[in-house]
Amino acid sequence: SQTIHQWPATLVQPVGSPLSLECTVEGTSNPNLYWYRQAAGRGLQLLFYSVGIGQISSEVPQNLSASRPQDRQFILSSKKLLLSDSGFYLCAWSVPGGKETQYFGPGTRLLVL
Amino acid sequence: AQSVSQHNHHVILSEAASLELGCNYSYGGTVNLFWYVQYPGQHLQLLLKYFSGDPLVKGIKGFEAEFIKSKFSFNLRKPSVQWSDTAEYFCAVSPYSSASKIIFGSGTRLSIRP
Q1: What are φ and ψ of residue A18, in 5° steps?
Q2: Would you write out chain A's pLDDT as a tens digit for each of its 113 residues?
């Protein structure tokens, strides 16, 4: 069966520090991968999605970037965190094919101080 | 740009009451439609989905949703809620032409009084 992992689960970082959040999927090949930010009262905001290795689509101009170095690995990064980057970050995957159900990871709660 | 609106931010009901959560989207073409649910302390998970065919879709735990194309709506319903339905509910839409991109609504928090 397929599983999705995210780490760390919780992270507290100072303003201006770098960020690297990792997401990996097991049990499937060539998934579509997604990064979302969930802010209280604001729902899920799609940040990036990827349909293959090295292919990243950015949905919102911001301080963050994403990379997909391997088929089932998706990384969210920042060179210098801002206070506004605080939030709950969710990774998700789906099977490509036009009728996509997304499967979500447990999330990473990021607090920038 | 495509968007999804959930007008009810927080709904409070008593057990056995009927539920309807509104969802409207803006997109002129063919769409796939979803409702996701996030129970306290759990992962976000799929509740039901519509791709084509019968516009009345049945999901898990007695939930259903009706796609009304003329109203660009996909409202979620349940005839009799239970305390265990307390959760946050998200409506989501993906344009069929770009199914990899799924847009979520802001969510509706449902609180059920025992």
Answers
A1: -80, 165
A2: 889 999 999 999 999 999 999 999 999 999 999 999 987 666 788 899 999 999 998 887 678 999 999 999 999 999 999 998 999 999 999 988 756 788 999 999 999 99
Instruction: Indicate the DSSP class of residue A63.
Output: S
Q: Cα distance from A75 to chain B (closest Cα, Å)?
A: 18
Confidence of residue B82 (pLDDT cuts 50, 70, 90): very high
The dihedral formed by the CA atoms of B85, B38, A103 and A11, expressed in degrees to the nearest 10: -160
User: If you search the block for the tokens 């507290």, which residue do you land on?
Assistant: A12
Q: How far apart are the first and last CA of chain A?
A: 38
Distance between CA atoms of residues B91 and B67, nearest Å: 12
Determine, for residues B34 and A44 on separate chains, whether the beta-carbon distance falls below 8 Å.
Answer: no
Distance CA B35, CA B64 (A): 10
Interface touch B90/A43, C-beta < 8 Å: yes
Alpha carbon distance B37, B35 (integer Å): 7
Residues 6+ apart with CB under 8 A from A29: A71, A72
